[in-house]
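Exercise 7b. Backbone tokens:
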């Protein structure tokens, strides 16, 4: 009986120590460094003294950097082609008749398959692309989808979330100058409303927020987004699980289904 009591005490003490260590691990600070530049997203995380990359995953194909800002290179000097020998007109007409007709359009190159978004499994990449498309199309709807489903517990947890060093430089380009101006005005009003809603949900500290019309489309390569998300590990993990659940249940974040060919 004494041995059983000692075993239970040791087991209880070990379990209590494990629970305390788990609680301490959940209360340690956890942060995310999110960056967008040159058409690519990068997400890095730090936990206590550890730093590791989350996105893009290892082994995923990386896109080639955009060359929109590069100066156009002058074409290299080419040697003029040798002059063709003059032939009689009758011979050329006969040769044209004997030559086979050009190949039909069936021999055209097949379109390249589109790469999967981010290479993430379970269709997460496609849903993230749909969410980012909604953010560009309707920022207010994106903020409401991301934070509108939180209850009182979620809103309290989101209040402990910090968005630091928010830097956004984005351009708007339309089909013509009039469409660019109209889109710029509508997007500017929507972003102001979305920013006000975001400030009501979390604590935000912005360094630079800039939106401008790009009538020529030459500044797309200069678009950039960077921010740092900070909180304790328990809050970030809980919010990440809630966000992942919303990716599959939110109708506005679902990827478009390809229509069958008729």
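Sequence design result:
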């Amino acid at each position: 009986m004494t041995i059983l009591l000692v075993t239970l005490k040791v087991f209880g003490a070990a379990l209590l120590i494990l629970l305390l260590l788990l609680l301490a691990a959940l209360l340690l600070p956890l942060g995310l460094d999110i960056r967008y530049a040159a058409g690519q997203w990068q997400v890095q995380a730090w936990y206590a003294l550890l730093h590791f990359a989350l996105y893009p995953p290892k082994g995923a194909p990386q896109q080639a950097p955009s060359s929109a800002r590069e100066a156009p290179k002058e074409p290299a000097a080419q040697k003029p082609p040798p002059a063709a020998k003059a032939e009689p007109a009758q011979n050329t007409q006969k040769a044209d008749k004997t030559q086979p007709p050009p190949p039909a359009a069936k021999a055209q190159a097949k379109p390249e398959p589109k790469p999967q978004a981010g290479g993430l499994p379970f269709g997460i990449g496609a849903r993230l692309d749909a969410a980012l498309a909604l953010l560009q199309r309707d920022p207010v709807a994106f903020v409401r989808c991301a934070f509108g489903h939180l209850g009182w517990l979620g809103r309290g947890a989101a209040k402990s979330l910090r968005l630091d060093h928010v830097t956004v430089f984005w351009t708007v380009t339309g089909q013509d100058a009039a469409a660019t101006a109209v889109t710029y005005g509508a997007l500017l009003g929507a972003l102001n409303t979305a920013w006000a809603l975001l400030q009501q949900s979390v604590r935000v500290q912005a360094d630079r927020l800039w939106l401008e019309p790009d009538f020529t489309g030459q500044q797309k390569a200069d678009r950039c987004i960077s921010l740092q998300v900070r909180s304790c590990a328990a809050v970030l993990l809980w919010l990440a699980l809630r966000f992942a659940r919303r990716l599959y249940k939110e109708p506005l974040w679902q990827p478009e289904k390809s229509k069958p060919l008729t």
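Instructor comment: The first helix runs from residue 2 to 27. The chain has seven helices and six strands.
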